[in-house]
């Protein structure tokens, strides 16, 4: 099964590169990108999981409504994207349930950072997808963690997919690897593991090349905007051509029970 997920949040990434961006612009960019993602999912008959901050959901009711009406899953990405407290685990879950009208069972920590596993369980989540089981200088050192899903207590841990040799398949790889190479690695991981867990963001579907505005290095802004839309369009078509099934993470978790 192919599990596509999208972290929908207030677009605060320019802060990491010394830039400021007004909250209204953060939301406008993420809302526009989310709409494009939903259009592609509808075109290719894909169901996906959206990890939303409570802040994004509060300010983007039209996107949350589309996610619900079009049969996708909503999961928690915390209350805010730029700050976190363990109490936000329950607070975001409750706010998202109020806005979405359905139980929220999944969590992903912003920027795939470590999270208190006991606190996740106590907040009532049944799965956590906050691990990138690879090594990236200055970001991740998770070569000791299982490549595939495992449990900590009652909570299923679903790491992001990497190749059998731990080459990451996350959003930066999608932007920077040649398309043929990314598809080759994705096929290898699918054959090895029986599923793919891939994650992206709505702001990737907007033009990020204005260095003065966003401060992003080329490896972040490469193939953003229309190029990203086109790449994802072709990639979804390719996944369907391979005959891979797709679904939400919650659907996948239920199959493992």
What does this structure look like?
It is a single chain. With 257 residues, the protein is α/β, with parallel strands linked by helices. Helix content is 42%, strand content 13%. It is built from eleven helices and ten strands. Helix 1 (23-43) packs parallel to helix 10 (226-241).
CATH architecture: Alpha-Beta Barrel
Biggest beta sheet summary: 4 strands, parallel
Helical residue percent band: 40-55%
Spatial strand arrangement across the major sheet: 3-2-1-10
What are the SSEs and their pairings?
Elements: E1 2-8, H1 23-43, E2 49-52, H2 54-59, H3 61-69, E3 73-76, H4 87-100, E4 106-107, H5 117-122, E5 127-128, E6 135-136, E7 140-141, E8 150-152, E9 155-157, H6 171-176, H7 179-193, E10 196-200, H8 211-214, H9 218-221, H10 226-241, H11 249-256
Parallel strand pairs: 1-2, 1-10, 2-3, 4-5, 5-9
Antiparallel strand pairs: 6-7, 8-9
Helix pairs in contact: 1-10
Can I get a quick summary?
By secondary structure, this protein is α/β, with parallel strands linked by helices. It has helices at 23-43, 54-59, 61-69, 87-100, 117-122, 171-176, 179-193, 211-214, 218-221, 226-241, 249-256, and strands at 2-8, 49-52, 73-76, 106-107, 127-128, 135-136, 140-141, 150-152, 155-157, 196-200.
Keywords:
four-stranded parallel β-sheet, 10 strands, 13% strand, TIM Barrel, 42% helix, 257 residues, alpha/beta, globular
């Amino acid at each position: 099964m192919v599990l596509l997920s999208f972290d929908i949040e207030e677009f605060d990434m320019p802060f990491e590169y010394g830039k400021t961006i007004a909250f209204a612009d953060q939301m406008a960019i993420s809302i526009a990108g989310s709409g494009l993602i939903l259009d592609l999912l509808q075109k290719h008959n894909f169901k996906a999981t959206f990890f939303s901050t409570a802040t994004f959901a509060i300010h983007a009711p039209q996107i949350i409504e589309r996610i619900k009406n079009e049969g996708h899953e909503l999961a928690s990405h915390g209350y805010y994207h730029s700050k976190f407290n363990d109490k936000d685990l329950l607070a975001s879950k409750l706010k998202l349930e109020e806005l979405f009208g359905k139980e929220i069972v999944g969590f992903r920590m912003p920027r795939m950072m470590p999270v208190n596993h006991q606190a996740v369980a106590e907040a009532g989540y049944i799965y956590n997808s906050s691990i990138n089981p690879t090594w990236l200088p200055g970001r991740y050192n998770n070569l000791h963690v299982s490549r595939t899903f495992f449990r900590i207590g009652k909570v299923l841990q679903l790491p992001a997919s990497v190749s059998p040799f731990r080459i990451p398949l996350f959003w930066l790889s999608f932007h920077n690897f040649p398309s043929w190479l990314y598809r080759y690695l994705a096929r290898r991981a699918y054959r090895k593991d029986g599923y793919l867990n891939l994650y992206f963001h709505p702001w990737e579907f907007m033009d990020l090349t204005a260095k003065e505005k966003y401060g992003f290095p080329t490896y972040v802004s490469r193939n953003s905007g229309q190029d990203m839309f086109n790449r994802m369009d072709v990639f979804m078509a390719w996944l369907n051509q391979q005959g891979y099934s797709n679904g939400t993470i919650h659907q996948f978790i239920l199959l493992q029970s």
